[in-house]
Amino acid sequence: MGDISIYARLLWAQVRSYTAYRGSFAIDLAANALAPLLDVATIIVLFQVTPDIGGFRADEVLVMFGLAALSFALADVAVGQIEKLRLYVRTGQLDAALVRPLSVLGQLLCADLPLRKVSRIGVAFVILAIAVSRAPIELTPARLALLAVAPVAGAVLFGAIFVATATVAFWWIDSGEFANAFTYGGRDFTSFPVTVYGPAFRYLFAYGLGFAFVAYYPTLALLGRPDPLGAPALVAWSSPAVAVLAALLAGAIWRFGVRRYRSTGS
Amino acid sequence: MGAASVSPRLRAEVATALALARAGFRRYATYRQATVAAATTNSVFGFLRCYVLLAVAAADPTTPTVGYTAEQLALYTWASQGLIGVVALWGWTDLADRIRTGDVVGDLLRPIHPVLSYLYVDFGRAAYAALTRFVVPIAVGAVTFSLYVPHRPQAYPLFLASALLAVVVTFAARYLVNAVGFWFLDTRGVQMAWIVGTSLLTGLAFPVHFIPGWLDTAVWVATPFPSMMQAPLDVLVERGAPSALLAEVAGQAAWAAALLWLCWLVQRRATAKLVVQGG
């Protein structure tokens, strides 16, 4: 109980620091809202050139994109700042977090919440709502439930990827943008049907890292389409289970990394 | 003024340029782990982008997609991931940092124009990136995809010239974006425009020619972004007639000249302002 009130205070301090510079915060919100719009523009341009990508039409791909963008935006706001871990490791600032009687991960996340990215969640939500209303989707109660659960499950999976790839910094201090290949790369991967990717690459990203469960399978379930790759229909509803598994794995990798951490001593 | 009096000056000038370029090369060559990480990330994005563009082309396999065959699109994607590091599309804040800390005053004391000294260092950086961050994605792409092989002999020297111009255009644009810091403490508006332009209009996410009709032409004429990647990529994959490619390279040269001139102008104004402030 005591811990929770400390976290709440850390978060509240963040909110207050943002409200101190309102104009600046407004600009940040606007700038961040652009990111998902740029990606939508890309998809629209691609569909100017072709009627279908990987066997899916524009309205179907946009549902996938909406789910991917909303999942990613939620994860990015909640745990995206963990990518700064390599700076904390390099400068030795992580030592300070280690000596305090709170979870290291909890401290890092609460100390620097990127509230300026909240606008991305709003934009992604609007994109998903428009995409779902334009696609041929019959909204049953089960599908509505899926529509509510899928972004959360996707966010948990992206969050797990954020944490697991940031851990690389414990071993590889100058890893730079390496984690981006899997975080931002994962977002790009999930924005398109997994049918476009070659077999080896698809196995690694879609199933090895679980990205097919963020947007591809939920979209199939929403559309009521069978998987062109032949997975049974039940798979389309399994993203929450995959997300929980990913989170447990990421937690284990994180704890292993923290235990192995040796200060850079500089 | 005989040739004898000019040539030592020129020789000194060239020696300075080479020394600065060598320094730039060696500075970036020290970050070996970061180079490996960046080349790996570029390669992963090479897979992502290449599969998507090939899927776009696969909808109608019999005709080229907006002038590109599937093999051309494959080479296009992998070369574009390699070029990100060569032209340094993102993450260059050297000048902005020096403006903020005030170190930029030191640049003005040197017997060489600040724009030129930064440009020479950037050539060294680009050379190092060409040997590492350009080669790795091309090699990965060549192993995993069937890449187009340019067959006109002039494609190679023209690509070299076009890539060099792309480095100059991107450098000058970055310099201008950084130099905004001389006037404004908050440069996020300009940064925002830079992100929009570089991610949508350089040819990285999709070839600029995919944009329909007059908008495509407008992007080429009115913005420098296609000159940063799209032009050398078109030259490399030999899209369209040789005359069209020459026109793209000529456009790059025009943008390079215009932006460098702007850099000079901005630098002069900024220097005057620094003196007024007594900095």
User: What general form of chain A does the structure show?
Assistant: globular
Low-confidence stretches of chain B: none
Q: Please give the number of β-strands of chain A.
A: 0
Which segments of chain A are poorly predicted (pLDDT under 50) over 5 or more consecutive residues? none
Radius of gyration of chain A: 19 Å
Number of domains of chain A: 1
Largest sheet data of chain B: none
The helix count of chain A comes to: 12
Number of helices of chain B: 11
pLDDT average of chain B, as an integer? Answer: 91
Number of discrete domains of chain B: 1
Distance between the termini of chain A: 36 Å
β-strand amount of chain A: under 5%
How many strands, what sense, and barrel or not for the largest sheet of chain A?
none
Helix content of chain B: over 70%
Radius of gyration of chain B: 20 Å
Average of the residue pLDDT scores of chain A: 90
Model description:
The complex is a heterodimer of chains A (266) and B (279). With 266 residues, chain A is an all-alpha fold. In chain A, 69% of the residues lie in helices and 0% in strands. Chain A has helices spanning 2-20, 22-49, 58-79, 85-91, 94-99, 104-111, 118-134, 141-166, 180-190, 199-208, 216-223, 239-260. The radius of gyration of chain A is 19 Å and the shape is globular. The mean pLDDT of chain A is 90. Chain B is mainly α and 279 residues long. Chain B has one domain. The chains are: A mainly alpha (266), B mainly alpha (279). The interface between A and B is large, with 36 and 37 residues.
Short account of what is shown:
Chain A has 266 residues and is mainly alpha-helical.
Q: Key terms for this structure?
A:
heterodimer, A: 266 residues, mainly alpha, 12 helices, 0% strand, B: 279 residues, globular
List the SSEs and their pairings.
The complex is a heterodimer of chains A (266) and B (279).
Chain A: H1 2-20, H2 22-49, H3 58-79, H4 85-91, H5 94-99, H6 104-111, H7 118-134, H8 141-166, H9 180-190, H10 199-208, H11 216-223, H12 239-260
Helix pairs in contact in A: 1-6, 2-3, 2-7, 3-7, 3-8, 3-11, 8-9, 8-12
Chain B: H1 3-29, H2 32-58, H3 70-87, H4 94-101, H5 104-109, H6 114-144, H7 155-179, H8 188-200, H9 213-222, H10 230-237, H11 242-276
